[in-house]
Amino acid sequence: MRTAIYPGSFDPFTNGHLDVVQRATRLFDRVVVAVARSDSKHALFTVEERLGLVRESIRSMPNVEADAFEGLLVEYVQRQSAQAVVRGLRAISDFEFEFQMALMNRKLNENFETIFMMPKDTYTFLSSRIVKEIARLGGDVSPFVPPHVQSALAARLATEKA
Ligand code: PNS
Fold first, then answer.
1. CB of 89 within 8 A of CB of 118?
2. Residue 22 forms part of a structural domain
3. Which atom of ligand 1 is nearest to the CA of 71?
4. How far is Cα 21 from Cα 12, in angstroms, rounded to an integer?
């Protein structure tokens, strides 16, 4: 049983994230989308809400699970007996941070590999931050996120404005 952890903030989960999950399922028997419980960023959705949006997005994928984790990723990977961490790499601009994180994680625990997957080229420009900005400014985010994420964004931003 080969398990990969796909960690991230997922605030919110996008079609780019879903594309990476689909690619990872071709290589691994089990993929766990792991939402980080980190308060270092100002998030639009709570961890539980983000987890719910991930769960709905992966509902039809039998070998994919969603979970939340606290603390060090390397410890979570160990607890899940995973062989790899998967991260999406969109452009060179992602590389520096990803490289640093992968090598630091390797220093902390040499027992798993970090694997980078390139999402479909149509998602190269996509990020949760940009999706939130477009939604806030009244733009159409339907090409970028699953329909239930679009609804959640609209509902959250409506309460923000009220
Ligand atoms: O979607 P993001 O915000 O780019 O994801 C970053 C994330 C959550 C994968 C990273 O911050 C992380 O692994 N956090 C857990 C705490 C940890 O292990 N930090 C040390 C990383 S070298």
1. yes
2. yes
3. 16
4. 15
Q: Which domain holds residue 36?
A: 3-124
Percentage of residues of the chain with pLDDT beyond 70: 98
Cα of 49 to ligand 1 centre, how many Å?
18
The count of structural domains within the chain is 1
Instruction: Choose, from 9, 17, 50, 57, the residue flagged as catalytic.
Output: 17
Q: Which residues have C-beta atoms less than 6 Å from ligand 1?
A: 7-9, 36, 38, 72-73, 101, 104-105
pLDDT tens readout for residues 72-122: 999 999 999 999 999 999 988 899 999 999 999 999 999 999 999 999 999
Which atom, in ligand 1's list, is nearest to the CA of 11?
Answer: 1
How far apart, in Å, are the Cα atoms of 103 and each of 74, 82, 86, 100, 107?
12, 17, 14, 5, 6
List the CATH number of the domain containing 18: 3.40.50.620
Assess if residue 157 is contained within a domain.
no
Dist. CA 162 → ligand 1 center (Å): 32
